[in-house]
Amino acid sequence: MKAIGVILLQTLMISIIGGMVGILFGKWLANSRMLGQGALRFLRLGLWIPILIYPALPFWWFDNKYHYTYAALGVLILISAAAVGFSACYHYLHAVITLHLQSPNPQAYVRREIILQALLVTFFSQTWMGEYGWPAALFAESGGLAVGLAVITLILTVTLLVNWAIGADFDQIASIRAAIIVHELTDERPRSFLGGSVFAAIVIIMWQGLSSFVQDLNLDPASVVKTIYRLFVETPLLGQFDITVWHDVDLSLLEVITGLFLSGLIASLVAYGMGRITAFNRLVSPLLQLTYLAPLMIPVLLFYAGLLRLTRLTIASVGILSFFPFLRVLWSLRDMKGKQLFLAIDDALPFAFVGMLFGETMNAVGGLGFLMIRARGNYQATEAVAVFAVMAGILVLISTLLRFLSRYFYREILIRAKSRDGVE
């Protein structure tokens, strides 16, 4: 099937390009502790920016200015490679600065994260690849079910091969993530905040510079900020019944919270069973890595069959995509005896937002993802980017609150965990 070949080709391409660039930047930043810590602070959430901005990209502008096949697809691949590059840089810095892994271990750990992030990016981005993406093949062919099953098989196969190649099991992966989280929470100093702020400023400056190449779209930071204000307090710009963006914020938050609640509930039951029943642990532990991405096709197939629609589709997408990161924190920090809940929610939060966007892209009549797509469909690039900025701000605000609560209530427990794991 053409869709499977495109998935493999895009995954390989952005893994190589994004991975190489990300690691090179990581090696350079690792020479300075302040720059390295600053980059880690920014990339913790910043690495998700290229993924979350997909629905706001003005592909129609490239369709008008250039040939769509080459220009728009080129931009899509470039953004996808940037998403992988950010992830590669983040994980390389943690491998060297936080985990103190020695060669070849950093490369093995980072390669795994690069490939799995590339797989996630490819799966999500192909929604906007038109006839070249797997969604077009799924809904256009009479054998759509076969396409969906082939995509699931491909994702499962790649996930198994990657983890087998580096010899990583679920316990090792979860322990590495726990060490990173504990380090981030117990080692956040003013200089890392300053470094993170510098990187954020650089991104804004680059944004201003890039917007000058598409002046007719009004995508400069000042125009976007003004549009955000109008979205919240003035007459809606998108003609959505006389209501402001608050309605869509409420709906998207409801979907994210409900999906996280369901994934957290199931993850808690699985973690409890693994801790109490040895046979259950041995049974499910080898299978848990397969829950990273492949199950996200299940709600898609239910939607294809007409069994899942609108908000329920989005909630299912949020719950499925956030399950793996939720469980790995609950399990790896189980010595905290339930007090790791805030940390698990925080680690699963970006995945939940990606799941929300994915569900609202498939089928929705409201929400921030729907609003971005509607604005783009109305050729309102400034409004689409403004909605993205609102969503990114909400993600940062919630994550910052969760981290603050975790540091405030559990600092002594986290310091003990840091000492126990030997993370410096």
Give a written overview of the molecule.
- With 424 residues, the protein is an all-alpha fold.
- The chain contains 18 helices and no strands.
- Helix 1 crosses helix 5 and helix 5 runs antiparallel to helix 6.
- The relative contact order is 0.12.
- The mean pLDDT is 84.
Architecture blueprint of SSEs:
Elements: H1 2-29, H2 33-46, H3 49-52, H4 59-65, H5 68-98, H6 105-125, H7 134-140, H8 144-166, H9 170-186, H10 190-211, H11 221-233, H12 246-276, H13 278-284, H14 297-304, H15 310-332, H16 341-362, H17 368-377, H18 381-421
Helix pairs in contact: 1-5, 1-6, 2-5, 2-10, 4-5, 5-6, 6-8, 7-8, 8-14, 9-15, 9-18, 11-18, 12-13, 12-15, 12-16, 12-17, 15-16, 16-17, 16-18, 17-18
Can you describe this structure in just a few lines?
This protein is an all-alpha fold.
Order of helices and strands: HHHHHHHHHHHHHHHHHH
Radius of gyration, taken over Cα atoms and rounded to an integer in Å: 21 Å
Strand elements, count = 0
Q: Which runs of at least 5 residues are low in confidence (pLDDT < 50)?
A: none
Question: Which structural class matches the secondary elements?
Answer: mainly alpha
Largest beta-sheet characterization:
none
Give the helix tally: 18
Gross morphology is globular
Tell me the helix content.
over 70%
CA-CA gap between termini: 49 Å
The share of residues in extended strands comes to under 5%
Instruction: Provide mean pLDDT, rounded.
Output: 84
